[in-house]
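Because discrete structure vocabularies remain unfamiliar, we reproduce here a specimen of the format, pairing a chain with its fold in token form:
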Amino acid sequence: MAGQLASLESRATLRRASILGLCALLALPALLHAADGSPAIPSIGSVAHGGTSSVHPPEHTPGTPTDAELEASGATIGRIFIDNQNIFDLEDPDDDAGLFRLANRLHIKTRSSIIRKQLLFKSGELYDRRKIDETERILRNDEYFYDAWIRVVRYYDNKVDLRVTTRDVWTLSPSFNFSRSGGTNSTGLQLEETNLLGRGIDLRLLHTSTIDRSGTQVGVSDQHAFGSWTSYSLNYGEFSDGYLHELTIQQPFYALDTHWAAGVYGLNDLQTDSLWDRGQIVDQFKDLHQGAQIYGGWSAGLQNGWVRRWSVGFAYDEHRFSPVSTWIGLAAVPEDRRFMYPWVQFDLIQDDFQRLYDHDQIARTEDFYLGTSASVRVGYAGTAFGSSSNALIFQSNASTGFGGTGKSTLLLYWDFSGRVANGDLQNGLMDATIRYYVEQSNNWLFFTTLQGTKGWRLDVDNQILLGGDNGLRGYPLRYQDGTARALFTVEQRYFTNWYPFRLFRVGGAIFFDAGRVWGSAPLATPNFGTLKDAGFGLRLGNARTGFGNVIHCDVAFPFNGDPSIKRVQFLVQTEARF
């Protein structure tokens, strides 16, 4: 969403989710349990969505008016009950096991006050189903909840009582992490608690080793600091090739009807940039990236189903490059860049979301955005501000979706960024993605996606790569280099009813990938043309922890390319999607 600190992207290593999150069950006794203190919560029935989906109460509570009738009559909200459920439902005989009872006792449930902070409504206000639906989406976006839903539980005197139901997941994870893609392993040791003492605070300490770097990182973040929507994030890392210092403090546009936002951001990041071709590092150089930003934004809120937002800010973005001791000079070390500029941004957002099940997740409620949105940011970096050159810097993106109540869903994404200097487009980068889903039954889903990327006069440190780490699963990571890229994927997905150990939801996929690069990138070897692979894989939906949504275990077979490529590729990684 617009209004976030988006212009200076941190290149810190992304946190890999834990595959073994529940190994922490015996690691730490409960120090504190929050008392809910809520009145007795009325009970309503439940119904399952689909073959493997979560169990929810019906959309409409029997014996109460419909949403349209409540809104038309001017009904107000009475009492709000917070029903935060523990990891395991001990009233379910399948969950009532010794290990699961122990997990519930050790787990510190999310405090009711943390849930109440995120509600977009309060007692005494008019009943508004739109605000309730948006609140559900906000709660489901929290890592420490498996799911969330809000229902009317009582109607009287033109008032309604609401029950806000959430289900916690296990959030303490001392673990060993492993992933494999493109023939390369990444490992890590981490200790992370994403819901410290039930307060929604994320505290993490990890040591990682990847193809790019190894090192130790500590971080802390809170999306509801000081009992408000103010958020902060602090990251500190020491790595084999440098360091990372990063700080964000902001009050974002947290909801569609939010009227203002503001924030500050700072970054000091030293790392070694590698230039890749054919899955091998061909040259390297040091990159010291320093940046800062301050911004403010305002909006009239949601009007007739649309949101319009304006933001202004000032950004500082600098890269200083130097050769490493192993630099062999195949490519010139990039010229230093420093841009200091004011900017203005406009965002347009349509309120249109659809709840789906068993698409990109297994047995979870998924909030698909089907509306039309667009964002444009423009800034001018001049030497008068201390920039290394005069340039018009821009970022833009747009998206839309189609689906509604039908069995198919089409999502379209587009973004374009770069700078204009001396009449030329420099470091221009355009991306477009099409994602298409067809629900064949409760268990079967057809999925296909087409992704394209085009670059113009890219900076030397900005490569367009294609390989095993970005969708071409049968090939080494960062295998082909070019100035344009396309990737086509077809998957037949299957969602089973298997629920092993009451910890994982299981699915599977058969897939085909085809991709290629174009253009004459500085270090690219002769182009292999269209590369193709096929394979199959197992998917494990992480049902009880907040560390990773879907674990992928894939076997892929490349059809062509370099003869030295292994004819079978094994991939194990945790992804946000199926």
